[in-house]
């Protein structure tokens, strides 16, 4: 520090602050949102801390100063967190056969005119062009029930108990042999499940839509909103998500099939919610994604809150993020090799 000028001493002080914040944020996935909802809000800032520390590291490297080691060590300690945010290379398409699953929060097909143009038609065209085998839709709208009839003979649409016009849906090219809905209390959100049959495999698909943080995706909007009100509202949403994940986790424990969990978690890979849902499952983005994997339109901030998680015995062969702005979310698709049938299925 003695060899540093005054400006660099100030920069290193700030570097130290952000390095400590990033280090502390590594424990956030283990903090119970129900007990500490406001602390859980900090999970949204982890990508910022990662980027800032990377910038500090480059700043010192350019000057050939050993201070770059501080941020480097912190980033290495949390290498899994960095990998959950950005992947250097991956595969967006697969030449091998597998189940192509897309998850997409369509924001009720632009029913209230947030975007210009014929959005429902464009969403339908995108799905037809990409042609997933299974499509999980969040914020489905009752006036669009015929949108995907052309390619999906097997469908499960369930509107929420608080609103019989919006809900979730699962569309499949494969037969659905069992289906159901997990109703979340005190909210308009829910989760669907459908058991699909492909060849000798029976796979359970979960389509989750967890409690929304109710953030308007605009820096301008957030800058004028009362920070205390915003903070408390988000903390309450995280607490509700915690309860919803408990309901989901209890339900999936009874499932005897391999499963794929997809949907809008309304939370980041650095949260307790994500850690509990993922468990030992594979995250398709971490397996085969590239870039930031942005799935939510928050100006230029790369938020990833939409996920496709697979059974650990399945193989993720490709992962694709889209840039078409037809909702406040972007669709996400993965190509998945199901693997061998479970023992109880072979015996049949």
UniProtKB/TrEMBL annotation:
Stored Pfam families: Exo_endo_phos (PF03372)
GO biological processes: DNA repair
Gene3D superfamilies the record matches: Endonuclease/exonuclease/phosphatase
InterPro entries, alphabetized: Endo/exonu/phosph_ase_sf, Endo/exonuclease/phosphatase, TDP2-like
Signal peptide: none
Transmembrane segments: 12-32, 38-61, 68-86
Domain Endonuclease/exonuclease/phosphatase: 102-329
UniProt entry keywords in alphabetical sequence: DNA damage, DNA repair, Endonuclease, Hydrolase, Magnesium, Membrane, Metal-binding, Nuclease, Transmembrane, Transmembrane helix
Cofactor names: Mg(2+); Mn(2+)
GO MF annotation terms: endonuclease activity; hydrolase activity; metal ion binding
Protein name (record): Endonuclease
Record organism: Sinomicrobium pectinilyticum
Organism phylogeny: Bacteria, Pseudomonadati, Bacteroidota, Flavobacteriia, Flavobacteriales
